[in-house]
C-alpha cells in the first residue's frame, strides 16, 4: 500500500503537469493564431487600400474625360437645335448661332484616351494568391510534422536520430557536400546570361546579369519563348550533361532560383507555369521570411537563415540539384534534391516525407530534359543579380 500510495501521488503529479502544460500550450497557440490573423488582416487592409487608391486615381482621369465628352456633346446638341430654330430672315441671329456652333466644334469632339494598357492594382490577387499558397503549404507541412511526433515521450523524434542518419547515408553522398570549400565548386563554374527573349513584360533586364520586377509593362518584341503569365526569365543555353555551378545574389523582394526544362511552355497559366509548381522545374524560394524548396507544386520549408548569395549546383550524372548559402568563401548546404536509394532489406521504415516521396516519384524525370537556369521574381520590386564567380566575396552590389 505504501508503494501504491507513492505511485498514485506520482501519477497525480503527472496528470496535473499534463493538464497545466496543455493549458499553457493552448494559450500560446491561441496567441500565435491571433497574431497571425492580425498580420493577415493588416496585409488585407494594405492590399485593399492599394486597390482603392489605384481605382481612385484611374477613375479620376477616366471620369474627367467622360464629363468633358458629355459636356461637348451637350453644347453641340444645343447649338444645332438653336440654329435650326432661327427664322430664315434673321441673318444676325443665324450668324450668332453659327458662331456658337463653330466654337463648340473647335473644342474638339474626338474620342478620349482609350482604356489603360495595364491596371496597376490587378496584380494584387497574384500577390495574395502567393501568400495563400505559402500559408496552405506551411500549414500542411507543419501538421504532418505534428502528426509524426507521436503521443508519448519515447516516440519523439529528435535531430540526429536514426531517421536523420538514414537520410544522410554516406553511400548516397558525394563530393559536392556542405563541407567542400567554395574553390571546389568554382571548377564547375557556368556563366549564366539572361535570355531577353524569355523575359516577362514586367521584368526589366540590366544587361545580361541583372533583372528587376517593375509595375509598368515593357514593350518587348513578340517571341514564342517569352513568358506571358509569370514574371520569369531563363538563362541562355541548355544543360544536358556534366556538373554546373552558378551563383545568384538576392538584392530585394521575393525571389525563386532554380532550373526549368527547355521545352516547357511559357504560355502556361500562373498556377501551373510558376517555377517549382510543375514537374518540369524546381527551385529555392526566398519569401522575405524563410527559405523553402519547391517541386511539382509541393513546398518544403528550410530552417536556414537568410543568405543574400545563393549557389546552385546541377549534377546531371547524379541527377541532383543542390542549393548553398555562400558567405565569405564558405558553403553551407541548404538542401540537395535527389531521389533516395531503395531501402535495404531489414532496415526499419522511417516516417514518410511527402516532399521526398514526390522527389522519388518524379524528380528523375526532370533530367530527361535539357534544363535551363530559371528565375522567378514574385513580388513587386523584386531584384536579383547573377553573381560574378570570383574567389573573393561576390557581394558587389549596394543594397537598399
UniProtKB/TrEMBL annotation:
Keywords: Metal-binding, Zinc, Zinc-finger. Residues 172-393 form the B30.2/SPRY domain. InterPro entries: B30.2/SPRY (IPR001870), B30.2/SPRY_sf (IPR043136), Butyrophylin_SPRY (IPR003879), ConA-like_dom_sf (IPR013320), E3_ubiq-ligase_TRIM/RNF (IPR051051), TRIM47_SPRY_PRY (IPR042780), TRIM8/14/16/25/29/45/65_CC (IPR058030). This is Tripartite motif-containing protein 47. Residues 148-178 are annotated as: Disordered. PROSITE patterns: B302_SPRY.
